[in-house]
Structures are given as structure tokens and as C-alpha cells.
């Protein structure tokens, strides 16, 4: 997540100006699969049951890995779906990327994680592992994730990661179902020795759009959630609660006339997603090298009129919800072919 805070005595505008000098993105998300062993109510890309996107073969995915190495992208996060469903590919891709000095992280729901897999992932170059914990209550977490036993497996996975010497990045998405238990989640993590929790607002796209009425919080509920967090942080003064803004990159890069594209997502079918929350694609990472796509216009994708026009109207999550073309519903607009 791009920060807008002043760093030392450096003005944010100076930092943004530096983005104009980029020769490639600083980080990317790479979906290893659209398959999943869960069916989460909020899933923005509809992974698992009802998945829209077909996975590439291992050979095609390794072509993308080589393109990432050629592009010299510093940080890559293996996402999904559930990446561990393609565990042999993860190991192979992580070795190739990390051998070139690329920092590799991954996201998992924890169901398939074992002590041996954690050890092999670390040995292959995986540097960090993120896992979601949606409640202190097994009943609530399991309902949210669509599988009995998901909470226990997530908790076991967190402990496995800790035992390997990595502090896991734990994420919490507040919704109507779980927001009241945020204090107990922080208690649980603190008892485990984890003093940080990442949070992100519920995004009403994908399967989340289908479950808006069950998940979307009212203004009063959002205020109560923030109050509960502040109360708990007063208790644990050394605990870091990172409440991210998922739309920050849209604000910053659509309004910065000089900035190059700092980040993007590669889907499991190779399509390059400009933003996870907008319905725009720019090429395919198997069919065309990332360096060529960058030179052909990916570097300046936020200056494309269609994207600028959409982005300028995104001032809150309400606009994400109301888009004419909703992302992750096969309603994407491919922009690269129109400019070849």
C-alpha cells in the first residue's frame, strides 16, 4: 500500500515526482490460481466456486516468471485463489525469482500449510506470508469463509509460520458479521506475540457484491469499529493497527501527471489488471513481455482517457460499487489491443 505520510522532511509531492523516473513497477501481485478450497463471502475475484478465470499451465506461468525477472521487478506477491493449490509451481517460481534478488511474499488461507511446506517455501525464497483471521470465533470465521474448520486451520497456520521464524502478516476485513470482535482478535494475536494487524475495508465487488446486504457496514457500525480499535490500542500501546485505504493508488496516480505505474496485478490467465478495483486490462503477461508492455504504454496507463475518466469519479467505495463495468465479472475492458 502506498503511503501518503511525509517521510522525514521529504514532501509527499517530491516522492510522487520520483515515481516519474521508474523504469518498471516497484511491486506486483501475481495470482497463481483462481481455484480455492474456500468460498469466502467477500472474495473480490470470485475464487473457488464459480471462478471465472482459467489457470495457465505451469509452463506458461514460468514464462511469466522469466518476464518478471527480465523486468527487474523488486517485489512479487503470490496471490490467488489459494496459491498452495499449486504448491510445486510456487516452489519453482519462487526459486527463479529469488535467485534474481526479487523479494517474494505470498497470501494463503492456511488450510494446506504444513511445517514441511513452510520450510520449503522459506528455502525457495518466500520472504513473508500473509494470512487472514476474520474473527476470534470459529463460528464466525468459518461462516465467512464457507467451510467448517477454517478458523482452526488458520490459527494452526499462524503458529506454523511463527515457529519458522517469520512474523506472519495477519489481515482482518471488518464486515457486519465480525466487526464487533476486533478487540478479541487483537487480544489473540498479542498473546501469540504478534503485535501488528492489517485491515482493509470490505470491497463490494466480485462475490462481495453479491453479499452486500449481509456484509456492508453502516456508518454507525464503521464508527463503532473504529472506537473498538482505538480502545484496544490504548491497552496495547506497542500494537500496530494498519488500516489501509484500498483506493489510495487510484487517487494518487490518476491525479499525478508525471508518475509511472508503480504496481499492477497479473491474473492466473496472464491478463494484466491495472487496478483490482477497476475493470481495465492492459495486455497479457504470457503473450507479451512485461518490458514491451511497459514501453508500449503500461508505464503511463493512468494517463489513458478511459482510466482517467473512471478514476476521477472514484471518491469512495460507493463509486466502486456503482461502476457500469464491474471488475471480476468478465466485464473487463482490454486497452492494450486498441493501441497496438
SSE topology sketch:
Elements: H1 12-18, E1 27-31, H2 58-71, E2 75-79, H3 87-99, E3 103-108, H4 115-124, E4 126-132, H5 138-145, H6 150-163, E5 169-172, H7 182-192, E6 196-199, H8 207-210, H9 212-215, H10 219-235, E7 240-243, H11 248-254, E8 263-266, E9 271-273, E10 280-284, H12 290-296, H13 305-311, H14 317-321, E11 333-334
Helix pairs in contact: 2-3, 3-4, 7-10
In short:
By secondary structure, this protein is of the alpha/beta class. The chain has 14 helices and 11 strands.
N-C termini distance? 31 Å
Output the radius of gyration.
Answer: 20 Å
Mean pLDDT, all residues: 92
- Topology as a string of helices (H) and strands (E): HEHEHEHEHHEHEHHHEHEEEHHHE
Q: Can you tell me the overall shape? A: globular
Number of helices: 14
Secondary structural class: alpha/beta
Amino acid at each position: 500500500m502506498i503511503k501518503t505520510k511525509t517521510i522525514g522532511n521529504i514532501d509527499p509531492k517530491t516522492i510522487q515526482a520520483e515515481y516519474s523516473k521508474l523504469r518498471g513497477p516497484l511491486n506486483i501481485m501475481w495470482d497463481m490460481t483462481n481455484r480455492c478450497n474456500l468460498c469466502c463471502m467477500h472474495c473480490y475475484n470470485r475464487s473457488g466456486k464459480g471462478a471465472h478465470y482459467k489457470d495457465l499451465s505451469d509452463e506458461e506461468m514460468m514464462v511469466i516468471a522469466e518476464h518478471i525477472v527480465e523486468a527487474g521487478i523488486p517485489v512479487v506477491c503470490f496471490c490467488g485463489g489459494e496459491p498452495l493449490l499449486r504448491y510445486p509451481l510456487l516452489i519453482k517460481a519462487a526459486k527463479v525469482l529469488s535467485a534474481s534478488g526479487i523479494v517474494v511474499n505470498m497470501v494463503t488461507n492456511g488450510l494446506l500449510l504444513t511445517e514441511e511446506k513452510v520450510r520449503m517455501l522459506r528455502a525457495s525464497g518466500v520472504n513473508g506470508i500473509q494470512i487472514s483471521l476474520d474473527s476470534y470465533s470459529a463460528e464466525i470465521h468459518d461462516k465467512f469463509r464457507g467451510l467448517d474448520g477454517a478458523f482452526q486451520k488458520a490459527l494452526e497456520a499462524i503458529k506454523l509460520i511463527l515457529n519458522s521464524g517469520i512474523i506472519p502478516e495477519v489481515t482482518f476485513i471488518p464486515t457486519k458479521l465480525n466487526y464487533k470482535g476486533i478487540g478479541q482478535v487483537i487480544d489473540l494475536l498479542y498473546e501469540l506475540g504478534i503485535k501488528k494487524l492489517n485491515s482493509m475495508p470490505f470491497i463490494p465487488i466480485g462475490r462481495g457484491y453479491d453479499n452486500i446486504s449481509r456484509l456492508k457496514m453502516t456508518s454507525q457500525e464503521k464508527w463503532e469499529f473504529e472506537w473498538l480499535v482505538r480502545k484496544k490500542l490504548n491497552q496495547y500501546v506497542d500494537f500496530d493497527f494498519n488500516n489501509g485505504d484500498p483506493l489510495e493508488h487510484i487517487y494518487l496516480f490518476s491525479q499525478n501527471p508525471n508518475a509511472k505505474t508503480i504496481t499492477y496485478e497479473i491474473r492466473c490467465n496472464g491478463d494484466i489488471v491495472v487496478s483490482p478495483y477497476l475493470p481495465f486490462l492492459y495486455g497479457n503477461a504470457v503473450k507479451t513481455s512485461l518490458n514491451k508492455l511497459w514501453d508500449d504504454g503500461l508505464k503511463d496507463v493512468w494517463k489513458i482517457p478511459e482510466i482517467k475518466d473512471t478514476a476521477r469519479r472514484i471518491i469512495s467505495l460507493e463509486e466502486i460499487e456503482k461502476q457500469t463495468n464491474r471488475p471480476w465479472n468478465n466485464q473487463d475492458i482490454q486497452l492494450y489491443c486498441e493501441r497496438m
